[in-house]
Design brief:
The chain is mostly beta strands and about 70 residues long. The protein has 1 helix and 5 strands, in the order E-E-E-E-H-E. It is globular. The N and C termini lie close together (about 5 Å).
Length: about 70
């Protein structure tokens, strides 16, 4: 699973059966819950995901959390 810090919120993205699945991630408890209302187009590459997340969540940007960054691959 790819884990991103999206303006202070942890989002996981996983490729399964040719589709991108999106999850809310609780890093302290290592829990993942599926987010059905966030869609990543299936034709996006792994490199393009952070830009897509930036586009759809940009209103959540703050001075403390100004960007989207990939944390790690789990």
């Amino acid at each position: 699973m790819l884990i991103y810090d999206v303006f202070g919120r942890h989002i996981g993205v996983q490729r399964k059966d040719g589709r991108w699945l999106v999850f809310r991630v609780d890093m302290s408890e290592r829990k993942f819950s599926r987010l059905y209302d966030v869609i990543i187009p299936d034709d996006l590459t792994e490199v393009e995901i952070s830009g897509w997340l930036d586009d759809i969540f940009h209103e959540a940007a703050t001075a403390t959390h100004p960007d989207v960054r990939r944390m790690h691959k789990k």
